[in-house]
Amino acid sequence: MEKESGTKASDASLVVVMAQLDPLVGDISGNTARAVEAVREARIEHRADIVVLPELFLTGYPPEDLLLRDALQGRIETALDELASRVVRDVMVVIGYPIVRHGKRYNAAGVLYNGQWQQEYFKQALPNYQVFDEQRYFSKGTAPCIFTFRGVRLALLICEDLWDDAPIESLIGQDIDIILSPNGSPFHLDKFDERTSIMARRARQANASIVYVNQIGGQDELVFDGASFVMNREGECTTRSPAWEVGLMPALFERDAAHRLQPQAGEHYPWPDDNESLYCALVSGVRDYVNKSGFKGVVLGLSGGIDSALSLAIAVDALGPDRVHAVMMPYHYTAEISREDAALQARTLGVGYDVMPIAPMVEAFTSTLAESFDGLAQDTTEENLQSRCRGVLLMAISNKKGLMVLTTGNKSEMAVGYATLYGDMVGGYNGLKDVYKSRVYQLSRWRNAQGDGEVIPDRVITRPPSAELAPDQKDSDSLPDYDVLDAILHCYIEQDESLSTIVARGYDADDVARVIQLVDRTEYKRRQAPPGVRVTRRGFGRDRRYPIVNGWKPGE
């Protein structure tokens, strides 16, 4: 159904404001208040005619099984009534929310103007891949939403609708001026280019401008980059919001000589490069997980190695040095260079820092276990005791001081099980969970080049990596070089390639078989690992779900 809304002396121009905001999942009343304030500010600061907020903004995205709560519908209806009564007049608002209509639950976007809900659109394309599980919760919409506001022909499409063919095809030939699109599109590497390429094609296909509004901030393992933009009919980006920043971005539309409404050139922030994007994603994910969970700050073990060093820098950039505490827990195999570099980094970043030797704890455990272990040779059991003693100390500090333990293992290690259950895996969140080791080195160098000094000591970056759980131990003693390991892991985890396919790429068959076997047999460890920021197309967690117990032969 089409409906005319609003009156204006001239329809020659229109200001659309993209409200790039960070909702809190489940905080419906708080998100409602955020929406009211954003619309008020957009009207005052930018003389907005239309304000577009992200997908499912009232619940935050993704709300997951909160959608199944009996109380949800009532809270949403209360929020919609509050928006109608509180939002400033003379501005049209497009906002996302879940709603039950005629016994079915929909992912909806509503159009509010002068206290009245004018339109309601139901998302037609429900993604059910990678991290998305919308078909578990929602019914599909079946009709487009086209309406006129102040002489402008508008249509609504929600996120995946623009990635799917059918919804856009229903708008072809409808003389649409602007497609307004609320989004909840999570970040992964290369996502900026992927989005803009697809949206440019859709704009040309529909012969309409697209206002693409994305949310921002972290939600559990997902992180949203914002990076909202306006695309004209020719598929050219005319206005681009900054990535990784909350804010309101206005876009001016005016009639051209042919009386077609066209977006004018506005602010145009460049996409950050891969390392900057990735680092910002990690900072955003850690910041929001800690803050939205209500922790005072974080504590982490600082070993003098590169993973904990990068994790410390991320934590400080996310929370500030006053909310970060580092603990060096040396044992007999901890090198003096590790002690020196950990202390140097802690001083450089200005964080709280303690040194807690674990030898007395390890010796106490060893003595207690001596009778049970009599006659058995030493092996990784004794190495793991060191890591588990460290985990106990960190959890005690967490409990006593209200600090969340930030674990520091990278994706390469988590993939092959190079981590200790109830030891270095102990914690509440992991900033590097989806970051391969080779990328850890790149990010560390990138962070040191940002103009505020060497926050990660150069020796930490250049020395051979080691868990320091045995004399002269190096990671390369038990794993291929990280450049090779990461390439094999990328093929196997993110591309789902078989052993033979990976070997055909030129990798050593024994290396590939060993890596695949390690990945397959350590699924049980990853199930018990803390959540962490997802930054690749296929992280461990929501993306990749494999049975722990199975008869599949490695490499098939």
TrEMBL record:
PROSITE patterns (alphabetical): CN_HYDROLASE
Keyword Ligase attributed: yes
EC class (word): ligase
Binding site for ATP: 301-308, 408
Active site, per annotation: 55, 123, 159
Top-rank lineage group of the source organism: Bacteria
Keywords (A to Z) from UniProt: ATP-binding, Ligase, NAD, Nucleotide-binding
GO MF: ATP binding; glutaminase activity; NAD+ synthase (glutamine-hydrolyzing) activity; NAD+ synthase activity
Every CN hydrolase domain range: 14-255
Pathway participation: Cofactor biosynthesis; NAD(+) biosynthesis; NAD(+) from deamido-NAD(+) (L-Gln route): step 1/1
Biological processes per GO annotation: NAD+ biosynthetic process
SUPFAM superfamilies xrefs: Adenine nucleotide alpha hydrolases-like (SSF52402), Carbon-nitrogen hydrolase (SSF56317)
Ligand binding (L-glutamine): 129, 185, 191
Reactions that this protein is recorded to catalyse: deamido-NAD(+) + L-glutamine + ATP + H2O = L-glutamate + AMP + diphosphate + NAD(+) + H(+)
NCBIfam families referenced in this protein's UniProt entry, alphabetically: nadE, PRK13981.1
Protein name as it appears in the record: Glutamine-dependent NAD(+) synthetase
Organism from which the protein derives: Larsenimonas rhizosphaerae
Gene: nadE
